[in-house]
Amino acid sequence: MYIVQIASECAPVIKAGGLGDVVYGLSRELENRGHCVELILPMYDCMRYDHIWGLHDAYRDLGVPWYGGEIKCDVFCGWVHGRLCFFIQPKSQDQFFNRGYVYGGEDDPMRFAFFSKAAMEFLLKSNKRPDIIHCHDWQTGLVPVMLYEMYQYYGMERQRVCYTIHNFRHQGICGNDILMATGLNRPEHYFHYDRLQDNFNPFALNLMKGGIVYSNYVNTVSPHHAWEARYTDVGYGLGHTLEIHQGKFGGILNGVDYNLWNPESDTYIPCQYDIGNLKNKAENKKALRERLLLQESDKPIIAYIGRLDDQKGVHLVHHAIYYALNRNAQFVLLGSATSADVNSRFWHEKHFLNNNPDVHIEIGFNEELAHLIYAGADMVVVPSNFEPCGLTQLISLKYGTVPIVRGVGGLLSTVFDRDHDQNHAPEKRNGYVFYQTDNHALESAMERAIGLYYEYPKEFEQLVQQGMEYDYSWKTAATQYLSIYEHVRFK
Fold first, then answer.
1. Model-wide pTM > 0.90
2. More confident residue, 16 or 248
3. I need a labelling partner for 490 at 20 to 30 A (CA). Which of 183, 363, 387, 458 fits?
4. Domains along the chain?
């Protein structure tokens, strides 16, 4: 099968979040199974060019119709760790992708509308006719709209679209100018509840909604999050649209790249280990303490790794630090704040706790240190307010680090409470789950985990091993995506 991924990110060359990991990991697994996969990406000036091999011209002066005229683009081709990628570089005074950032411009909807238009023009004019176009999040929501409303009449009538939503929070809200720029025009057609009109603002267009309405299949990144998007406020207003299109909507759990995240082969940790050799995990714990100047003791290390923002339950992260210390545990935090207020708050805590030998707070992100924390910690807390899939708990299971998670989204699809899960046999349970957003709920789960560590160490080790037995690689997800591709191919 010939598959083209159109996305705004692909790890490691362009990575602002989990989207980049998904695009790369899924593409590689599909290729490993013998399918032809190509990726189309914006050519940002802030990309990691050192991760691109053999960058060369693929298409010079691609004319992209825009506002009744056209913008010329150069398309470059290169390999990102084995994946064949095409990078679109507009030659425009708007400098859409020469701004030193991936997201954050006031004109982001226009930037990515242009990228979507340019990607379609590149497919059309280079005579690429994939079986499946797989696009991602609001940034490429216009791709299926333009395919159905325009490009199918120019020889692309057989292409089918799978549309994956990674985060419903950002939907690409914009105005009529997007229609004029892309040549879709006809505002009376698109400002309609059944098409692109935002569900709550009749004077705005919603690019993510357009992707849902026009795609052949739509999914989000875990089965439980698919349910949440339809029936709770996690859908951020798109629940009714998903209800209308429920026949083509579902959830597929993301995978983890075990080539990168695997304690058996991880080059970032001093001692590699597996499920049958947990003594080496203890060596990594010792190395983590030495690196972060924590005191040597028999206490468990509890960790938090990730962004510090409202989505991640930052108030509970803060509480977890002090609860761990009060319960005779050590705590390690590695995270970057997304707001000045949260950043200031955690810098204050860092200074306040600076001389405490049982805690280390690292503001920012360090890939090498993240690997060591996963390998050296005993438990990891993931108290998210919402979590479409979540990578932290999947990695921690592989590294034998017991996850303590809030029961939302992908966390509920992957972590099964040792004491209370009714759907899995005791030998299949792998962590601790709490449901409310208050301190007491978090404390209850942390108390059970810490208690097991101290009072029943053999049972704690058994729980560690049960978590390590789970396979959350891309194998299962790729099989499900291929099933969807086959389903929509012949529609």
1. yes
2. 248
3. 183
4. 2-255+475-489 (3.40.50.2000), 279-471 (3.40.50.2000)
